[in-house]
Structures are given as structure tokens and as C-alpha cells.
Amino acid sequence: MTTLIVILWLVCSVFVIFEKKIVRMILWLFLSSIIASIIYLLLGSPDLAMAEATASAFVTIIFVIGFEKFFNLRDMKKYLKDEKEIEKENKFKRYILPAIISIGILVLFINFAIPVEQNDYLKNLILDRFTIDIGGENAVTAIYLGYRVYDTIFEALLLVIAVVAVVHMSNFDITKVNDGKHSELETSGMALFLVRIVAPITIIFGVYLIANGFLSAGGGFQGGLAIACFFVCRFFIYDIYDLPIKKINRLEDFIFIIIVAMAALTIFAGLIQQVPYRFMTLAQEIYLFVMNALIGIKVALGFIILFYRYVAIERN
Amino acid sequence: MSNVELVSIIVFFLAFYALVTNRNIIRTIIFSSLMEVSVITFWLSIGFRERLNPPILYTMADYEHIYTADPVTQALMLTAVVIGIAVTAIKTIMFITLYRKYKTTDWDLARIRKTEG
Amino acid sequence: MLTLYVVSPILLAVFMYLFTNDKAAKIIAILAQLALIIASFNLFLQARTYTVSETVGNYYSVTGIRLNVDGLSSILILLTTLIFLTITIYNFAEKKSKLFWLLMFIWEGSLIGIFMTGDFFNRFVLMEVSTIISTILIMYNRKHRSLYDGLYYLIINVISVQFYLLGVGYLYRLTGTLDIYEATYRIPHIDPSLLVLPYALIMTFAALKCALIPMTTWVPKALATAGAPPTVLAVMSTVQMTSGIYLFIRMHYVFGDFANNAIFAFVGASTSIVGIFMAISQKNIRHMLSYLAVVQFGLIIFGLNTGDEYSRIGTTYHMINNAIAMAALFLGTGIIIEKYQTKDLDKIQGVLKSAPITSYVLIFAFLSIFATPFLNGSVSKQLIIRDMDILGTIIMYIISLGSMVIFFKFSSIFFGKSKIEESESETLKMEIQEFSIIPLGLLCILGGIFSREAIGIFFNAYKSINIAENIQHGVIFVISIVIAFFINKLIKKDTPILKKLQTYDMGIRGIILSVGLFFAFILLIVGF
After folding, report:
1. pTM for the predicted model, two decimal places
2. B18 Cα to chain C: minimum distance (Å)
């Protein structure tokens, strides 16, 4: 069964590459990511499957908002006219030579990739110890909030930097954005009905993922993305840019304070081991829950700011 | 070599071929996103077995952990996914600003307009 | 607590974000940087004798992330804090937005983290953070920003880091651990034919970070782009590219006997020689400096892969001196460009009279880059040259000669009549800037005069050099200067070859293809 889905993924990726229109390419990419997420589920990682699914949804939203101008056939004609300005490249040099080189490198690669069993040292060590050292029941959460929390701080920092960069690079002095073209969603009753059912489920699911991250599959990141998707759904329902921009920019400062809180917590995480034995489980679970909640809030806020910034750029 | 690993390497080099062939900036951004997905799939195929249980306490079947998926690669790839989204968002915003300034979506044209303007 | 070295710049960054452009906040920043320098000096004293090691969170060492600071890392951390202190003082009188300070200090935290980490994946995360921050910072000036350069730099780095991830994936499968020291113990027990692929993948990425041929074209885009303030370029050309070489050193150490030195010696030498020709043909002083950086890093890679233990120590010392000199060069040319409002080599004249302090610092920095008997490059060059065979020595002399030609071409800005008038309001800012780069120039001289003692202090390695060799190298040096002077006079600016080299640019497709070809090249040579 895994083989079938993997071949489906390969076919989808081939379609991504050889597609001519950009809008179809984005949709093939989305489909390919969803199939990859199902592959991850079959390989035994539900956490990563959820993360990949929500992440690819968000990336598709970003692509659709950002590249909306280039979908239309009229713009394609303009693009082709631009291309004639440069001298025509040899068909051979452009397509066939890289194909030969890529296939050559692929063959070399497979020649040297000798199949070997995985060395199980680190995996067994962590799976044996994680309930005692960190607590909770989900090994993946134990790793990224306990053993490798140093990585998680930087990844959180990276998201904040991305949000800050987007705001800085699109720095128009916007205080109010006028109503843009209303999408067809507002007039289509069926779409509105479905979105009105899906949106509250999204936010409940997001909160559940955050709260239960250390006990079963889930975690701060997946839950945060789901909550951000709720706000995207809300935007589709109303399509009015009514969240005030200044308040949203104020949220960024709030995010920084969260980062500082996270950093402080992780430095003192080592102190949890000094807590007396009776309270150890409680202390561990509180730590895991609070860290998941902080990460979830930060991710949700960051992506909401990102999404509204993109829409503001497109409306101008 | 397991199927998943072979296919992920093929997709990696397909994305590589597409990156070398295309002159459109938008397509470059999309293909680099595809390349990241293929690397993540490769990492997950490291301990491939036919039936794998997720590394959560009530589904872990055995004490030898042979049929449990590797939690280390999953945690690492969660980080990689987050980094992928952040980088894609930044690339997209840079492209939008570049289009406003140079009015082209082609790499070579952008270079020519940069040296002229 | 080693994590404090990384976390405190980040906390300082958040603090500066909330209160910026207050004079008090900037003074607090300078004091914080001073505290960081004292702390890292303390760390250096500790790390000379034993490796300071700590697992974040105090878990059992292999399951967590281990931070290792040995001699080399502690020197590089000291270098980072020194350069950041210099630029904090440099920007004291200038108004910069909140974003600038936030990103600069987070960058400092991530760079210190790169030098400290002992884990493959942690290094990946920190390198991504520093790549993204440097991309945003080189496009900082809104008027002159060049989005093409920024997008090019970002995309080529993000694509080649996927190669690194694949390599680490293979290594994790073979050794079962993500810790660098643990992997070093396990690799000798693994069949060498299995190690070919991870070695090629990881080394391709390391070669791109060090700007080796054929992947050099991102360097002039990143370092010479018009939208970058000079402080960003100073940090980038020194610490960020030195972190690339640090990655190279560590990865070669991990692979131990399996690592192939001859390829990289060859590649490093060709990078330097090609870089010399590209640098001579440039008309823009920032482009010249960026190609000079390429030449020097090629030379360092060449020196690291030839000779014995002692020559490696000499090259490492040269790497540190090169970093300080490059920082002084970029900051100094930043002052000059701001004064003259142009970057063109022909238009800038008479710097020696109008900005004397800056020009002396620039001259000393240049002199320390190519071997002068009194400044810091030379004794380390003699150490390198001693243990190699004749071909290596000839290559070193040719590269030094090339660097001298570049210097003579650059020095045309010092003479002539300057055509600008100074305005009163600018002078205070520029005085502070000039004051801030004086310590760098002094370090260049002191590092040169006392270089034998410095190598002893830094690396615990002593070797005496006899007077006859000193005289021989001095004579060769003087002869090279004379030859370089005449070569510079002979080169006419408008030869068609030079004009072609000046505007040569490999597009994004070219550089991605070169990454693939380099990977295939290493795979073929190491595999068979």
C-alpha cells in the first residue's frame, strides 16, 4: 500500500514540473504535499503528517495571494513578449544538457547509496528514557520540548524574524485598507455554509491539538497553524478587512515577550529535575503544557500577521 | 533501497533539473518548496519497515522498539517544515517587491534591468 | 552556562527593539557587548587547556544537544564579540531603525551559537537563521536596495542546504547519532564505501559556503550590493564566511582519515587565482574587496589542506587576521564612500589628505593581508610555506603577488586631489566611525609584530624560525612588491578581456548547475 501511494506522489511531482500554467502548478504542489502527508502517516508519524498538511495549506494560501497576478492568460502573453527581449537560447543547451547532467548525477547517486540498516542507538536511548526524563506520553513532543528545546527556540525565533521581515519589506503606511474585490465566496451560499461549519471546528481542533500535544499526537505548532487557518476562514466569510492594523502590529511586540518567556523557561527547565519526586510528574506536565501553549499562540499570531500583510499588499 | 527513499531521491533530482531549466522566478520558488518536501520524505524513510507504530506510549507495541517509528527524525523534520514555511514566505514577499520595481518575472531580465536602472 | 552566551545577545536584541535610538539604550548596548567580550575572553582562557562541554538542559549527553567549546571555537567567539563591539560603537551616532538592531543582535547570537554547537542539526538551524538575517540586512537601505541580489543569495543558500540535510540524514542512518564528537568516534568503524555519499553531500555545501570555484558568484552579489550598510558587510565578510570555513574544518575532522585533502587544495588554489583576475578587472571598490575576500578564503582552504599540523595552525591564524583586516577594510571603505558619495575607483582621489586616519587603517589592513615582515600575515605565511613542497610554495607566492597587485590598484584612491568639501554636521558621526576602527588597525599591527607569541598563546604551539629564512622571505617579499608595482602599471584598464571579466555573471541556473556538477565531481573522485 505504501508503494502505491509513493508512486502516486511521484506522478504528482512530475506534473508539478512539467505544467505550464502557474495556477495549476500551485495546485499540483498542494496535492503533492497532501499525498506526502499521507505517506508520513503510513510511515508512523501522525505529528509530522498534521504539520505537513497544515503547512502546505498555508504555503498554498501564500502562493495564491502572492502570485495572483500571474494566473491570467493575458499576463502570460506579456511574459512571453518579455522573453523575446533576450536572445533565444539553444533548445539543446537549455533543456537537454541539464537533463543529461541530472540523470547522470542521479545514477551516480543511486550507485553510491548502498542500502544499510538504520543504526538504532539514539532512537532506543530516547524511547527508553523519555517518560522518566521529560514526562508525557508523546516521544516527539518530549524531544522537541525537552531534549532539543534549544532548536525549538531558534525555530520560533525564525518565524518571528520572517514575520518582521515581511512587515519591513512591505512597509507602506497603511492605516486602513479599503474593501477589495469581493470574492465569489461571499455570494455563493453553499460555500458560505460549508465554511461556516468548518471554521469553528478548526479552532476547536487547534486548541485540542495544543492542549493534548504531550499525551497523544499533536503539539504547539500544528495547533497554532490550525488556529491561524480559522482566521483565514473568517476572512473568507466576511471579506472585510476589519481587524485594525495598528493593533495587529502591536501584536508583534507581544510575540517578542513570548519568545523571552520561552527562553527563560527553557533555561530553567533543567531545574525541574530538582523538584521533589512527588510533584515531578505534575511539574513536567505543567512545563510541557505551558511550552506547547506558548508555541501555539506565537505561531498563530505570527501567521495571522503574515496573512493580513499579504492581503494588504495585494489590495494596494 | 526502500521504495520511499528511492522515490524521494528521484523527486529531489527532478526538482533540481527543473530549477536549472526554468527562467521564471515564481517557478524557482515553487520548485525549491518541492525540493524541501522531498528531503523531509527522505529523512522519514530512514528506518523504514512495513508496519510502523507511532512513538506514542499507548501505541508502542514492544519493548525492543523494532516496530516503533523513530521519534528523532520526526522532531527534526518538524523543525525543518517550520523553517521551510518561513523561508518560502520571505521569498514570496521578496519576489512581489521585485516585480513592483522591475516589472518582470524573469531572472535574466531582472539582472539586465538591475544593471541598467 | 554556555547557553547564556547565545541567549544574552537575543535578549539584548529584544531590549533594543523596544527602546531604540535612545542614547541611553545604545550605551547599555555597548556595555553589554563589553561584558560579552570579557566573558568570552574568560571562556577562551578556560578552553585553552580543556574542552568546555555542556549539554543543554543537563540531560544525558548524547540525547540532548551538546555544546563544545575548544581552542578554535573560543577564539572565533572572541572574534565575533570584538567585531560586534566595533560596529556598535561605529553606529553610535547614526540613526537606525528598530529592525536593524534587533536583527544584528540576533545575528550575533546565532553566529556564536554556530561556533559553539556540537550537533549536526542544530548547526543547520543556526545556519538557516543567519542566512535569513543576512539576506534581510543586505537589503536594508530602501533607496538602493537590490532585490535581485538578495533573492539570488537566499535561493542559492537555501537550495544547497538541502544537500547538507541529505548528507546528515545518511550520516544519521550510518552512525545512529547526531552528535559531532560521537560521530567522530564511530566513523572509523564504518565501511568506507558507505561514507562516500554523505561526504560528497556535506562537502558540497561546505564548498559553497566558503565560495570555492565554481560557486563564487554569490559573493560579489552579497558583499557588494548597493543596499547594504557597511556594518552589515563587515560582519558578513568576516564572521559569516569564517563560519563557512569553520564548518569545513569540523566536517573534515569528523570524517578523519576518509577526508580527501588533495581535491580541496586544488580547488582552493584555483579559486584564488581566478579571484585575482576577477578582482583586478573591477572598477567598483566594494567589488574589489569582495573578490579579495574570495582570494583570501581560497588561500586559506589551500593552506588548510596541505602541509602538516603546524602549517594548519599558521593558516588558522591567518584566517583570524584576515577576518580582522576585512572588517577594517569594509568599515573604512564605508566611511570613504559616504564621504565621496561614489563607489567608482576612478572618481575617488586624495583620501590620504581628507581622511588620514581611515587611510592609514586601510593601508595597515591591506598590509596584513599580504605578507609583510612586520605585520601579522607574514610569520604565519612563513609557517605555511615551510612544510610544503616546491609547487605549493610557488602557488603561495603567486597568490601573494596577486594580492599585492590588487593593493596597488586599490591604492590609487590615496593620491591625487580630492574634490569634495566637508560639511560640519557630518563630521562628528564620521569621527566616531573613524575612532571605532582604530582598534582594528592596531590589532593588525600588533598581531603582526608579536605573531610568534600570539600563535603560542592562542594555539599552544611553539616553533622557532631561524634568521636565514626570515631574510630569505624578506628578500622575496621586496622583490614581489616591485614586480607587483610594475604589473599594475602595465595593466591597461580597457582591455577587452578585463571588460568581459568585469561584467561576468553566472545566473541562478548556472550556479545551481555548478553545485550539482561539483557534487558529481567529488563523488567521482572520492568514490573511485
Report:
1. 0.92
2. 10
Per the structure block, which three cell numbers stand in for A129?
528514557
Residue of A nearest to C130 (CA): A158
**Lookup: cell for C177:** 547519532
By the CB < 8 Å criterion, does C161 face chain B?
A: no
If you count residue pairs, one on B and one on C, with CB atoms under 8 Å apart, how many are there? 84
Long-range pairs of A286-291 with CB within 8 A, sequence gap ≥ 24: A287/A135, A287/A145, A288/A134, A288/A135, A288/A136, A288/A141, A288/A142, A288/A145, A288/A146, A288/A213, A288/A214, A289/A211, A289/A213, A289/A214, A290/A265, A291/A145, A291/A149, A291/A220, A291/A262, A291/A265, A291/A266
Name the phi and psi angles at A117, rounded to 5: -70, 150
* Out of C64, C122, C129, closest to residue A157 by CB: C129
Cβ separation A70–B60 shorter than 8 A? no
- 3-state SS of B62-85 is CCCCCCECCHHHHHHHHHHHHHHH
Q: How far is A120 from chain C (nearest CA, A)?
A: 6
Round to whole Å and give the CA distance between C502 and A141: 53
Q: Does A238 touch chain C (CB under 8 A)?
A: no
- Are residues C128 and B87, on separate chains, in Cβ contact within 8 Å? yes
**Chain A residues 83-142 within an 8 A CB cutoff of chain C:** 98, 101-102, 104-105, 108-109, 111-114, 116, 118-123, 125-126, 129, 133
Question: Rounded to an integer, what distance in angstroms lies between the CA atom of residue B44 and that of residue B70?
Answer: 8
Q: In this structure, which amino acid lies at residue C69?
A: V
- Whether a cis peptide bond, with omega within 30° of 0, leads into C214 is yes
Grid cell for residue C329? 577594510
- The answer for C108, left when phi > 0, alpha when psi is -120 to 50, beta otherwise, is alpha
Are A231 and A203 contacting, i.e. CB atoms less than 8 angstroms apart?
no
Q: Which three cell numbers stand for residue C155?
A: 535561493
HSE, CB side, 13 Å, CA atoms: give it for residue B35. 28
User: Angle at the Cα of C108 (from C106 to C111), degrees rounded to 5?
Assistant: 110
pLDDT (tens, 9 = 90+) of chain C, 528 residues, equals 788 888 888 888 887 777 666 677 788 888 888 999 999 898 888 888 888 888 887 777 788 888 889 888 898 999 999 999 988 888 887 777 778 888 899 999 999 999 999 899 999 999 999 999 999 988 888 777 788 888 999 999 999 999 999 999 999 999 988 999 889 999 989 888 888 999 999 999 999 999 888 888 888 888 888 778 888 888 888 888 899 999 999 998 898 877 777 788 889 889 988 888 888 888 888 888 889 899 889 888 888 887 666 677 777 888 888 888 888 888 888 888 887 777 777 777 777 777 778 888 888 888 777 754 333 333 344 444 555 556 767 777 788 888 888 888 888 777 776 666 555 445 777 777 777 788 888 887 777 666 667 777 777 766 656 566 667 667 777 777 788 788 777 776 667 777 777 777 788 888 999 999 999 999 998 887
A120 in contact with chain B, both atoms CB, cutoff 8 A: yes
Contacts of C516 in chain B (CB under 8 A): 16, 20
Q: Which residue of A has its CA nearest to C117?
A: A150
Query: Which residue on chain B is closest to A21 by alpha carbon?
Result: B27
Domains of chain B: 3-116 (1.10.287.3510)
Between C4, C17, C99, which is nearest A168 by CB? C99
Q: What is the ipTM of this complex?
A: 0.94
Provide, as residue numbers in chain C, all residues whose Cβ is less than 8 Å from the Cβ of A146. Answer: 57, 59
CA dihedral angle for residue A156, residue A160, residue A161, residue A163, rounded to 10 degrees: 140
Find residues 160-189 of chain A whose CB sits inside 8 Å of chain C.
161-162, 164-165, 168-169
Joined grid coordinates for residue C278: 576577477
Q: Domain extents for chain A?
A: 1-85, 135-316
Say whether C57 and A119 touch across the interface (CB within 8 A): no
